[in-house]
Amino acid sequence: MPGPVPNREADLARPRERKGADQQSVTRGTARPAKAPNADRSWHPIAQRLWDAAKESGQSDFYQASDWALLYSLCEDLSVYKKSTKRSGQMLQTIYSAFERLLIAEGDRRRVRIELHEPEDETATPASVTVMNEYRAALGIAN
């Protein structure tokens, strides 16, 4: 199906009230835990670095076994490309386009409205408490 990837049914404002040609049912499955395989030691260093970075990145929390298999294949293709003496710009563009589907770059994630945030520091004082303490201090009230 051409066009942008649709939102999940649960993410739509009024999923049951949609009308028109875009009304389609959603088939649901169960997400299963997936373990990332090890990188191939013979890969080009750039492909190895990209693989390691993807394993550490937050978007990989959502990867299923098929996503890891696709990423493995793409890193293999990138490695072959980088080691080749005859390089095609079209081949590199094709490889990079496939990486977009795995949401490797921040821009790709933003396009599908996925934002990764830094974990909150549990030892830090919440901003609301800090503001109240400063307000009390300004008024001369003890904490």
From TrEMBL:
Residue ranges, annotated region (Disordered): 1-43
InterPro entries in the cross-refs: Terminase_7 (IPR057972)
Pfam family, one: Terminase_7
Compositional bias segments (type: Basic and acidic residues): 8-21
Source domain of life: Bacteria
Official protein name in the record: Terminase small subunit
Organism per entry: Actinoplanes campanulatus
